[in-house]
Amino acid sequence: MEIWINPACSKCRSAISLLDAEGADYTVRRYLEDVPTADEIRAVLDRLGLEPWDITRTQEADAKELGLKEWPRDAGTRDRWIGALAAHPKLIQRPIITADDGTAVVARTEDAVRDALGLS
Asked: Buried b vs exposed e over 6-44: b needs ≥16 C-beta within 10 Å?
């Protein structure tokens, strides 16, 4: 299991605390320092069953500078969105847990973390 985090994020710290409390075996990826490639983002999106705009933090300054709210959200622009996430990792919603069983969750709630652990 791997968790993508920003250590400054309270949701990420909460997710880590719950993983630790449950004795989970996981690795931490500080995705702002160890930036995921476009292919890694595609793979996580496939595991999540989501589109790139679904995991984009559109309120971030980078998103506003890029005008992301105005970008079309369709198959034709999917790669453009993924490219923006790879170039501006602050835009990636966090934390994201990729489980060993091939699933993934955006773990912003305790329930989502429990889902990743198979506890719900």
From this structure: beeeebbebbbebbeeeebebeebebeeebbeeebbbeb
Would you state the pLDDT for residue 100? 87
Reported as a single tens digit per residue, the pLDDT across 44-67 is 999 999 999 999 999 999 999 999
Q: Is the pTM of this model over 0.90?
A: yes
Query: In angstroms, what CA-CA distances link 53 with 37, 56, 68?
Result: 16, 5, 9
Query: For 2-117, CATH number?
Result: 3.40.30.10
Residues with a catalytic annotation lie at 9
Nearest 5 degrees, angle CA 86-CA 87-CA 89?
A: 65
* Cα gap 58→60, rounded to integer Å: 6
Domain ranges in the chain are 2-117
Alpha carbon 2 to its chain centroid, in Å, reads: 11
